[in-house]
Each structure stands twice: as C-alpha cells, then as structure tokens.
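Priority: medium. Attachment 1 of 2:
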C-alpha cells in the first residue's frame, strides 16, 4: 500500500495477514493487534541521502494500544503513548514520544532512537530495549516499576536483539539498523534493557518453585554466537534465534503470571489496597440492578449502590493513573470531573475528599 493511512490503520489485525505501507499513518496504528504483521516505511521520494527517518514521526499517537500478539516494524518515530498496554506484540521503531510502553504487561519493544519522557510508567511485564548512545534515557524513564540494565554481548537477550534488528533492516532498509548491525559488537553496549520489577519477581518465584528459569520461547540460549552485518551487507544470525523469529515469538503476560499468586477474589476484604498494582490484583466489581419487584414500589435509583459502597477503596485502587488519561478527554467524563484525582481521593478516603466533593454519605451503608 502507498499513501496516507487514517485512524486505526490495521487495528485488530488477525494472524496470517501481512500489511506493508509506504507512506505514513495517523493515530492508533495496530490498535489491539491480534497476530498480524505490519511494516511502515516513509515514501520512496523521501528516502534520499539527506533524509533521516529516525528524526521524523511517521505514525501518530497511541499506536499498538492494547496489542496482544503480532509484529510491527516502523522506520521512523512513533508519536506519544506508543505501545501502551501492549501485552504480547513484538515492535521495532526508530524512536517514540512521551509515555512509551506505559502499563505494558507483555511483548517486546525495541527502540533504535530516543524515547520521550515518562517511559515505562506502570510497566509490569514484557521487555524493552532502548538505544541510548547519548546516555539520556535514564532521566526520561519512569523508574518506579522497572530496573535498567546495560546490554552486553554476554547478555542472554543479545542474540535475539541482533536477530530482530536484522529482520527489521531486511524489511525496512533502515540506515540506523544497518549501522547498529555493522558494528553490533560495540553498539550493543549502547542499548538499555528495561526490565519490569514485577516480571523479574514472578520469574524468580517460578524458579524457586519449579527449579527452572521460566522464560518465553523468544529468549536466546546462553552461548549463542552473535554475528553482525559485514561490509557486504551479509549477515549471519544464530540458528536458534532465527528459528524463534520464523516460528513466531511468544511472551508471558504478567497478568497471567501473577493471576494465582496475587489476584484477589471478588468480595474479599483488603485492609490496605495496593494502588500501584491494583489494576492487576483486584477484579472489577460491577454495580448491580435492584430487582424489578423492589423498584415497582418506589422512585429510588435503579442501581443498588450499597453493593458499590462495599469495597469502594479497592475499586478506586484499580485506577491506572495514566500519563495522559483518556477519562479526562472529550471521550471521558461528560461532567468534566478530574477522574484520576477523584479515584485517588476515594482510595485515600480523606477529609479532603469529603470537602472537595461533598460526598459525606458516600461511605454510609
């Protein structure tokens, strides 16, 4: 395909479907990606010696939002909120804007250029590899839930990283990828591995319980040789890594890993709710309707608000406190309420909450 793609290009793309676009695309590219493959490169007329794709945004905001499986290659930068809530897709791009990989729970993301601020906020699963030659990434990353590691040739993920960049180069012709591959032995040290603390803890727990390290099928085996691109653009990649690429990459969703160990049953009492991981730990409690027989005799609310008041603090702890919350946008609260602030105050149940919102009866039985 050639030209300018609109909103939600390749959204929910199914397995077995491959789409290649020469041009650019708007917001929500590959939203909810479900197994398909997408490649986006700039228009051919732009690919001159003076054009640097890594300096230009080629896709819009919130691309790969909620993706669960598949692969996306983007020769150029993505705008803000890239790969938010990604839970299984494999993605390579040449950079992204603010709030990248926010609340990501699975999959892998490789950035061959700079990221914006607040990267990995609330990230609890999956892995991200960020090229950081100028050493500014740490200041832009939200370190509340992740730990950063310097990549080396000896790192168990180095072979996979080399392979996926090689595949990216083959499909996009990226000059950045070509340079990294040509000098991979030294360039690998410019990558930073973003490893979620929850993911690490879950793997550590499984190791202790089962006596093995449970990694996903894409993890290269220690000892694989890592060969980069040579002067003739010929490349050699480890057989095991190449097989992983060919067979598709499977990753562990952190919500599945933690399901049995930390999930709280509906209706269970929680003395001090965990706000940081509430979305993962606590199931959503739906408000119930009052029975028709009961409603026939009064003019009270249709909903049984008493069921909602029970465990209200726990439900408020499920708020993800997004960097750019959609609940405050034109598609959010019709009354213009600041929903994240509201949820936080309800979670804390402070005097400030009662004073600001005048909801003194909210917690009454």
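Attachment 2 of 2:
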């Amino acid at each position: 395909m050639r030209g300018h793609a609109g909103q939600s290009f390749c959204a929910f793309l199914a397995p077995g479907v491959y789409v290649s676009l020469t041009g650019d695309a708007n917001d929500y590219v590959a939203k909810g990606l479900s197994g398909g493959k997408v490649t986006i490169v700039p228009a051919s007329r732009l690919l001159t010696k003076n054009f640097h794709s890594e300096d230009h945004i080629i896709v819009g905001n919130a691309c790969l939002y909620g993706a669960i499986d598949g692969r996306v290659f983007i020769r150029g930068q993505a705008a803000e909120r890239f790969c938010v809530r990604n839970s299984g897709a494999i993605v390579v791009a040449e950079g992204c804007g603010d709030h990248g990989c926010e609340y990501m729970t699975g999959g892998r993301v490789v950035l061959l250029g700079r990221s914006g601020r607040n990267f990995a906020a609330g990230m609890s699963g999956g892995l991200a590899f960020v090229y950081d030659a100028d050493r500014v990434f740490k200041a832009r990353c939200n370190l509340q839930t992740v730990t950063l590691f310097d990549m080396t040739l000896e790192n168990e993920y180095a072979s996979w990283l080399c392979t996926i960049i090689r595949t990216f180069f083959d499909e996009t012709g990226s000059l950045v990828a070509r340079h990294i591959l040509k000098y991979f032995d030294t360039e690998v040290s410019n990558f930073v591995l973003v490893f979620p603390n929850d993911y690490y803890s879950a793997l550590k727990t499984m190791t202790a319980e089962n006596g093995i390290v449970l990694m996903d099928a894409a993890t290269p085996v220690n000892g694989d040789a890592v060969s980069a691109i040579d002067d003739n653009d010929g490349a050699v990649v480890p057989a095991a890594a190449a097989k992983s690429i060919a067979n598709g990459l499977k990753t562990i969703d952190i919500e599945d890993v933690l399901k049995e160990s930390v999930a709280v049953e509906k209706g269970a009492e929680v003395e001090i709710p965990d706000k940081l991981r509430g979305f993962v730990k606590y199931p959503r409690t739906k408000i119930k309707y009052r029975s028709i027989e009961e409603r026939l005799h009064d003019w009270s609310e249709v909903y049984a608000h008493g069921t909602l008041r029970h465990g209200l603090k726990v439900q408020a702890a499920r708020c993800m406190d997004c960097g750019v919350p959609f609940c405050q946008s034109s598609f959010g609260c019709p009354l213009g309420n600041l929903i994240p602030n509201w949820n936080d105050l309800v979670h804390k149940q402070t005097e400030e909450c009662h004073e600001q919102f005048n909801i003194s009866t909210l917690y009454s039985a």
